[in-house]
Specification:
- It is a single chain.
- Helices cover about 85% and strands about 0% of the residues.
- The protein has 10 helices and no strands.
- The chain starts with 5 loop residues before the first helix and ends with a helix.
- It is mainly alpha-helical and about 300 residues long.
- Among the domains are: about 100-135; about 140-309, no CATH class.
- The protein is globular.
- Helix 9 packs antiparallel against helix 10.
Length: about 300
């Protein structure tokens, strides 16, 4: 395999540097005072259009509508344009009438009050013991075991919640502990992957700038998210008869459903994860947000069985 020469490396760097400068200039032009109105309206139109397209796609999968209706999307786009105009002028009006950083001062005062409260609580015995426990659990020595334990626990809890809901709706007759144990095992596999994935991301993409967060988000959604879904179905297939056939059937029938749900839930959640949190708390945050999503994945996974019962 031929090595990339120094001139090729220079050309690649020059290309990406030029692309980044072009992107930065385009962003500055779009959000400049001169073009801000048009940018805001276009954003509102685009997001409203995308939202209705996603909704109609969801309705098509549930067979609530027969065909995609472009006129409905056009109406939503027009509504988005109107909302964009109103929002643009409203925020300009607010910033002119309410001048200064009074809200910032208020938030600072609230922050100081919470710090004083935290200091008062910290001197108590139980709080100090809990803090020491957290420091040990999330230390480099025990972080792997902590992350896997969190994933197992919340995956199991998510399935317990889903089964209780199905019992309430009379979709199933009684609680199935074996199903919960399988979901817990799947959570263990996912926890192992998440632990190592976040460490790799933070090792190779260092920093918390907007560009770094966007890079992590793109890699997470396009590379790791499909791997996670395949791991989810694969780990559960191990507990069923004809594991390989079951895995193929589940992926063919349900992969797209879960991947669409991933795009609805995780991009905004991961922005907070990548921008504000240190590596050791990423899996904890991930699983906390994922609790509701775990209920949904359990429903998707066992939906066929529920219907057949």
């Amino acid at each position: 395999m031929e090595e990339i020469g120094p001139y090729s490396v220079m050309a690649i760097r020059r290309f990406f540097s030029k692309a980044y400068r072009t992107y930065k200039q385009a962003k500055e032009d779009a959000f400049s005072r001169k073009n801000l109105f048009y940018t805001n309206v276009l954003l509102s139109v685009g997001i409203s259009t995308l939202g209705d397209t996603l909704e109609q796609t969801y309705e098509l999968t549930r067979k609530e509508i027969d065909v995609y209706d472009p006129s409905r999307t056009a109406h939503m786009a027009f509504s988005g344009g109107t909302a964009g105009v109103i929002c643009h002028h409203w925020y300009n009006f607010l910033d002119r009438v309410i001048v200064g950083r009074s809200l910032f001062v208020i938030m600072q005062a609230i922050g100081v009050s919470w710090k004083k409260l935290a200091m008062a609580v910290r001197v108590s015995g139980p709080a100090l013991k809990f803090k020491r426990f957290i420091n040990v659990a999330f230390s480099n020595k025990y972080l792997f075991y902590t992350n896997v334990t969190i994933s197992v626990t919340l995956s199991a809890f998510g399935d317990v919640m889903e089964q209780n809901y199905e019992i309430y709706c009379k979709d199933i007759e009684k609680y199935d502990p074996k199903r919960t144990s399988h979901m817990a095992a799947s959570g263990a596999a996912v926890g192992v992957l998440c632990h190592h994935w976040y460490k790799v991301l933070d090792k190779f993409i260092v920093g918390k700038t907007v560009d770094m967060v966007v890079k992590k988000l793109v890699l997470d959604q396009f590379i790791f998210s499909p791997i996670m879904i395949l791991t989810f179905f694969g780990s559960l297939a191990l507990f069923e008869d004809n594991a390989l056939e079951n895995f193929k059937e589940e992926v063919t029938g349900k992969f797209t459903t879960l991947y669409k749900a991933e795009w609805m839930v995780w991009p905004p959640a991961q922005i907070i994860n990548f921008y504000f949190l240190p590596t050791r708390y990423r899996v904890l945050y991930d699983n906390t947000i994922s609790l509701g999503y775990d209920v949904y994945t359990s429903q998707v996974k066992h939906g066929k069985k529920t219907e057949s019962s």
